[in-house]
Amino acid sequence: MENELLQSFLIITNQNVKADINRSIEVNYNNIDKYIESTKKFLNVTLTEDEYKLVFHDIEQRFSIKHSKGCAIFDDYDQLRDWYHEENIEDPYFWTRYKRYLEEFSSLNPKSIELLDQTTLPQIMNCLGNPTEEFEGIRLRRGLVIGDVQSGKTATYSGLICKAVDAGYKVVILLAGITESLRQQTQQRIDEGIVGLARTMNPILKTPETHRVGVGLDMKEVRATSLTTQAYDFIATNDNIVTSLASHKTVLLVIKKNVSVLNKLYNWLKNNNYDPSKGYIDCPLLLIDDEADNASLNTNKDETNPTKTNAKIRQICALFKNATYVGFTATPFANCFIDPDSVDSMKNADLFPENFMYVLPSPSTYIGAKKIFDEDGAFHRNVRFITDIEEPDYASDEYKDRASNDIDELNNGPFYYKHSKNWDGVFPKSLTHSIYCFFLANAIRDLRGDSRKPRSMLVNMSRFVKVQRVIKEHVEKIYNDFKSKIEFSFSGTDADKNLPLYKTLEELWNKHYSFIGNISIDRVLHKENLIKAIKDIKIVVVNGSKNSNKLDYKKNPSLRVIAVGGIALSRGLTLEGLLTSYFYRNTATFDVLMQMGRWFGYRPKYEDIFQIWTTMASARWYDEISKASEDLKEQLRKMFDQHLTPKDFGIKVRDNCEELQITASNKMRMSFDLNEQVSFYGNLHETPYISLNTEQNKKNVAQTKALAFQLWSQGYNFKKSGKGAYIVRDVPKSLISSFVGGIVCSKMNPSFNEEYIKDFIDDVNTIGLDYWDIVFQGGESETHFDIEGLEELTCAGRAIHIEHNAVVVSSRRRLLNTSAGKLALSEEQIAKAVSACKAKWEEEGSSIDRTIPSKAYFEHLPNRKPILIVMLIVPKPPKENEDEEQKLIKFRSDLGQSYIAAFAMGFPGVKGVDKAKHYKVNKVYYTQNLMDEPEELDDEDE
């Protein structure tokens, strides 16, 4: 389709969408297709797959961003968290101005801003401490907000600051990374979005200047005082400022996580504002820690002597009567491994997010690791593999000899991972090709009508500043040679097609951009269009050094740049309009690798042409990290569903890649290894832990009733077994799989994960599970099953208690006694299992005069049928004079006259555990699930 026709298609489709929105008709992710189909019929045209995607994402971007829900987990679910209400804020001065600023100047669409205003920020505000609440003593609330890399966390915490200040917070400290370039970028955004004034240095007169910016352009009263500026951190003579926090309406500081800066701030706060008679500063503090997994954590081996940065952050918080610490990060792996029980000599806990964790919603237009590096991801074709760098064998004697004796040869040879800081050798050809692709992508965007938009390319190959300068010089040579050839060798006629450079560009076009149907290669490779695309490109080095270049998008909103750098390109720094990334780094931790992914984010109108050049190994790592990240977020969502707290829930982080660490070793001192089975053969798996969320129990009871009804309606025979059970034989695994997929069990159950079990049952490689026995197990109580055909069964009666924020229906962490393994077996099968078990004990030299465990009746019977056991349990009332905790009282109240549904599933010993998922787990998980368990008791011992 020609570009003009495609633009008409977009205009007509957008008009139809807007018309429905104006008529209050909801436009969502699921009905975008109908608008596209309507325009296709109207214009009588067809769309290629890529054109269809382009139109779809354009509509999605403009009108209908679909967000996943944000959710929080808390330290106490019984406590009401509704102190913050927008209508109770007398003067929402800061948020009103910032919202208007977002609407006028940001790239966020109206729906995103509304979600931020009405849902996300109020939810986070209710996690914070109430700044106007009166209480005895001092209080520090600690929490963590988890987002995605390059997903708009800055807008979120800027909005949070605005609402917090409007609600009564008086002092805001924002820790903005560890580099000055990032701090300056953050200060600029705070000046524009909150303060309204910027103090900068006149480049000619070298004198400070103050001028209105951003929200301040409305010329209204300035109500915030910033004690830091874009030019200066809290350094030099700042600690000589004699002023009281109480004399200002709002005080803001944007500082680096630098020990000397933090120390200077601490001393100033204590000397000028601390009231010794009260023992605190009586001003509510909000401390926001951006990139909270970096430089803030206590990584010192001696817990009583924490790393200085960590200590200073805590000391600053401890000066205030009412303080809230909120960490923001996209890579929370390190934060998960903080010891929640750590207490140092200051009697002040580490920065573990004890009070809350909040997972930010993700817009559907966000392009993250899963969409790029998963082989089935929507943007996997945007990945380009670097295959022309040959790494030495670092373990070989030859390499070691060269590194010791021929270092000059290595420094002047081909580029490789472990180059020294003096490397100045031969660059790979793929770097040149990636730069050429950046030039082509610029031309494409110009021809699409986006000529005023900023463009950037990232080159991240070395951590050494000296080598970064060498890379910059090489990139400049590539750029100058290219520009010269276009200007002096190209003529703008068909004769250009015979030029070597044209043929190279044509080859790259055919390889990387041939799918773009609305723009021809002739237009892109035309001399005039190429010159326009590249003539204003700047090549700069961006790093943590004082000589680092600055990316000033305010002065040059159409900036086109190739940025060469290292750490400054890896944490927080935004590259606007990132089109091409050349990434060749050997960092080997989840968090650092993710933070280096500056290419994640939003790519409106150019999501089809951005490119990531990297190695196959790095791509594989990113794929693994995306799975670990999603797995971790899903755990947090389930924590919320089951009312589990940060301290009580054991967190596990997927660790299946031998080449990668989850985070730096000194951030994982409280971590443990876990190999979690994905084969359930040869054991009985139970649910003695029940979620405090009774809605999940109601769902499980409903699923149990539905299963029984389905069995009755399909003619299965319910055979009574003794006085306390009914057995249904030979049920196909499809019914079992469907049932397991419909129940929700507490994550506190160490071996019963309904999702893993369902996957195991459905796996084509799983054998021996085609037909099942189902046992509806009764017990000793006066309450009968409220299920048709099972009315004769009485429910089990169990005393219940709270453990790790879950209800436990057994004092032994077992749902069933040891005889449960015998259910549905013949006498012959039972004898065979007992004999095999004792033979094994004899072979091991163990005593055989002990109870046969329930596991034996599965482990030693490879040909038995698998079994599903369903129990309905009536909680016994508390004993006289027994005081129950509030959570248990509430659970009983919410449960009412209903009963608890619990399950067990046993699998024949077809084969052993032949594969496992590898995790790193935190201290809580280890304590709950990996420490030695008590021995199983025999029936008569109960």
From TrEMBL:
Residues 141-333 form the Helicase/UvrB N-terminal domain. Residues 430-657 form the Putative endonuclease Z1 domain. One of its GO terms (molecular function) is ATP binding. This is Endonuclease. Keywords: Endonuclease, Hydrolase, Nuclease. It comes from Bacteroides acidifaciens. Pfam families: ResIII, Z1.
